Amino acid sequence: MCVVSLSHHTTPGHIEFRQKGHSTYWEYDLGSHRWQERKNITLRPQEKQVLFLSAQGYTVPQIAEKMCRALDTVKTYKRALFERLGVRSITEALTVAINQGLL
Prior knowledge:
Elements: E1 16-18, E2 24-29, E3 34-39, H1 45-55, H2 60-67, H3 71-85, H4 90-99
Antiparallel strand pairs: 1-2, 2-3
Helix pairs in contact: 1-3, 2-3, 3-4
């Protein structure tokens, strides 16, 4: 089955193939015109929980309360999540997580 989805990439031409349950995926390099094997991103349980609660519409203070963590701790989880996924917003993070099967 082939799935076409929106991308968080800012440049056109990004192509990748993923297979559910595998720890790697294939990405097309436009510069070398070759396929490159890449490792999937793995998220820590706290990062997944922040993503999951964000997807449900909770704010950062509400997420901190639900996770029984300090507000700054949740902000740290969120920053680490953004860095790991290479995104700038929670919307982008959710898009990447859904597209890569991380949630």
